[in-house]
């Protein structure tokens, strides 16, 4: 009887072990799995110019969940030109379990978009954007209409685009600026699956008389609280924007520089948020400590995740901000 009982105990232990075991996974799969379980998204933009597939060789797909290609805009008639490498890039993204989205408009969009979102032309633009997702097998569209492009026609356009994309099983996201919050109607905002908060560019080369940080931690908190509390958007829809670039202020300094170029030129600059060149000027940006602090805040607030402008501005190896984002998110999510 003792042998039978012992056999039964061993059998039960083996069954429990089998039930708890998973297939062997590599480090990248494990990391992606934890991100998915915790539903923390890492959304990254990249420019649409050039050969997209070739440029994608610089991306670490294991560290992002969504890739947004920006910006793909139609001509004045609403027609979209072919995008070199986009279909192959979409396949590569999907092979790596990454959603891929096309962004249109942008910070300096063609003026004819104001005409295309008017009632007489709206269907042409909506149909064109929807067809774009079909042609290149994309997962959705990112609406990056900003400033005075968020006008009296914005809401109706967003409503129509949402209906069209939902029929195709596609998602619709938006990039928003807190300073322009009153322009976005509650009805329009509610239709987006994810809202990317552009928590940067509080100043820049266009404000030479206002030198200083353009993307502080305090501003990130304020921006998130505005959209979450004041505008009443659920945290799980909000994605906190992070900059991968610096702005320079001074008499003899570059007006802007990618983070990767900055830390390569000035060792140690990754540890701080500003770097002074005596007699020339000062760069302002987000170093690794601030990026990690913002990621920790996003996790604490149960945000959808973080967004990056833009991925190819990163450094390589241990100085990578994307690596720091992933490491910090996984660390915080384990708590």
TrEMBL record:
Its keywords, alphabetically, are: Glycosidase, Hydrolase, Signal
Protein origin, superkingdom: Bacteria
Hydrolase as a keyword?
yes
Quote the cellular component terms of the Gene Ontology held in the record.
Answer: extracellular region
What this protein catalyses is:
Random endo-hydrolysis of N-acetyl-beta-D-glucosaminide (1->4)-beta-linkages in chitin and chitodextrins
Q: Which residues form the GH18 domain?
A: 40-332
Signal sequence, start to end: 1-17
Q: Which Gene3D superfamilies match?
A: (Trans)glycosidases - domain 2, Glycosidases
Source species of the chain: Pedobacter psychroterrae
- So what family is this one in? Belongs to the glycosyl hydrolase 18 family.
Q: Which GO terms describe its molecular function?
A: chitin binding; endochitinase activity
The record's EC number reads 3.2.1.14
Q: Name one GO biological process term.
A: chitin catabolic process
Name by which UniProt lists this protein: chitinase
One Pfam short name:
Glyco_hydro_18
């Amino acid at each position: 009887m003792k042998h039978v009982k012992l056999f039964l105990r061993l059998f039960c232990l083996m069954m429990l072990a089998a039930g708890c075991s998973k297939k062997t996974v590599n480090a990248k799969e494990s990391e992606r799995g934890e991100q998915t379980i915790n539903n923390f998204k890492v959304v990254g933009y990249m420019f649409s110019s050039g050969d997209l597939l070739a440029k994608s060789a610089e991306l670490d797909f294991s560290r992002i969940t969504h890739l947004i290609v920006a910006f793909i805009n139609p001509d004045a008639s609403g027609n979209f030109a072919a995008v070199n490498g986009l279909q192959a890039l979409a396949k590569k993204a999907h092979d790596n379990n990454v959603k891929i989205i096309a962004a249109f408009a942008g910070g300096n969009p063609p003026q004819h978009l104001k005409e295309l979102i008017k009632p007489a032309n709206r269907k042409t633009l909506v149909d064109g954007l929807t067809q774009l997702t079909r042609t290149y097998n994309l997962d959705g569209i990112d609406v990056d209409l900003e400033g005075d492009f968020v006008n009296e026609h914005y809401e109706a356009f967003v409503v129509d685009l949402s209906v069209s994309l939902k029929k195709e099983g596609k998602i619709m996201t938006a990039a928003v600026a807190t300073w322009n919050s009153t322009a976005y109607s509650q009805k329009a905002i509610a239709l987006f699956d994810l809202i990317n908060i552009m928590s940067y560019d509080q100043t820049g080369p266009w404000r030479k008389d206002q030198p200083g940080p353009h993307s502080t931690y305090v501003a990130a908190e304020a921006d998130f609280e505005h959209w979450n509390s004041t505008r009443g958007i659920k945290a799980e829809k909000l994605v906190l924007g992070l900059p991968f670039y610096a702005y320079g202020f001074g008499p003899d300094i570059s007006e802007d520089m990618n983070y990767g170029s900055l830390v390569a030129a000035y060792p140690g600059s990754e540890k701080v948020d500003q770097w002074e060149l005596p007699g020339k000027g000062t760069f302002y940006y987000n170093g690794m400590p601030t990026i990690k602090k913002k990621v920790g805040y996003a996790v604490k607030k149960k945000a959808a995740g973080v967004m990056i402008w833009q991925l190819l501005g990163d450094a390589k190896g241990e100085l990578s901000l994307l690596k720091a984002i992933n490491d910090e998110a996984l660390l915080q999510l384990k708590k």
